[in-house]
């Protein structure tokens, strides 16, 4: 390994507390010698990757860069170190004769993890590495806690990595360290931002309005889920964190907007697993005068173009499967899906018959749930995990979808679809129910299920019903789970890998 690519390893004989104590002593010594370990600002004119990609051997470009020291090799009168900025890494070469004895003495008190600023010119070392020759140097932030630097060793021609920061739970708890030492994690979140940006531009490009609706709600609704509750002291009233923003967005369609959407943080008081986090992000869209058939085509276009924009291809690798987002997606009714995968016809069965069918399949059910939930449990357990390629599951029983319009040709069913890909739901859509009389009947039926003990059944929202009584045009609605779409497009296996700070048990 070239000398300038070696780094000074943290002394293994020192405990974490010893290393921190040494860094505190260095900080104190710096301050006593007149060096501010935490100055206010530094003028940055270039980043690592731009310097490397634009480098020309015949030119010496003056640059001012800043970043965190990730490798360091201190020598007598000259030293090499690598700094990492938001884009990547670059090597810096420093000579005592260039920066002065006082500055070089300051450098001698620095460690891996410290943040520094460097001004100088670009050049290529004898070993061919594009680097910055420091002319001035400044400490910008002294790191008091050592970062976990992975060590590499070549064994029989194979690169072996030791002491990598790889413990999943520790990475989630200390995402800031995860981002420092695992650059690939940054790429996932950069892609997440690109996905949201593309979707936002896609919707606004269609002429639809981005809006904001309440997070604190006096009555929660729009989904089958348990809410988080809180209390407003001044009004002395109980409020709920929203589980969905559907009912407020449909109020805006009543008010005369033709298309509205919202990227929303929603909150559901439910379990945590690879696909669920209590706080999650979804985008909901409502477009007047459209139905769920039109919305299926829109979703195909949206996901196909999003994948192309972010990955440059419509295919992605997820949980060991190559998945194509190229339209058209397969379409299958929920009844036909259960028939295909379970050999059970649920279309005309009573609640007791459905319970018996579920028992025959080996499924244990909560006695408080009704027919719709039973069908949902059968589908979720035996069908959904097997749908790897994008599949629209359509035409749900009415009880499963109290906010969806009755199917125009299938009594007892509604015009609804869910898109399943990679074995999990990505989005949900209805031809929205706009008959206030039927909507009241549906919500009152949900209230009866709540009395039976179904805590996820919907509640009656009188203000929403009043809005419908003023008249809502035919409307198509859509909710897309942003976290799950990001998982699919970036190939991440857990929702915790696409949320910066996922919820965890207390340490």
Automatic annotation (TrEMBL):
It is found in: Cytoplasm. Gene3D superfamilies: Bira Bifunctional Protein, Domain 2, Nucleic acid-binding proteins. Keywords: Aminoacyl-tRNA synthetase, ATP-binding, Cytoplasm, Ligase, Magnesium, Metal-binding, Nucleotide-binding, Protein biosynthesis. It catalyses: tRNA(Lys) + L-lysine + ATP = L-lysyl-tRNA(Lys) + AMP + diphosphate. Its cofactor is Mg(2+). Residues 192-506 form the Aminoacyl-transfer RNA synthetases class-II family profile domain. Residues 1-32 are annotated as: Disordered. Its EC number is 6.1.1.6. Transmembrane segments: none annotated. Residues 20-31 have a biased composition (Basic and acidic residues). It is an enzyme of class 6 (ligase). The keyword ATP-binding applies. The keyword Transferase does not apply. Pfam families: tRNA-synt_2, tRNA_anti-codon. Binds 3 Mg(2+) ions per subunit. Mg(2+) 1 binds at residues 418, 425. GO terms for cellular component: cytosol. Mg(2+) 2 binds at residue 425. Belongs to the class-II aminoacyl-tRNA synthetase family. This is Lysine--tRNA ligase. It comes from Chlorobium limicola.
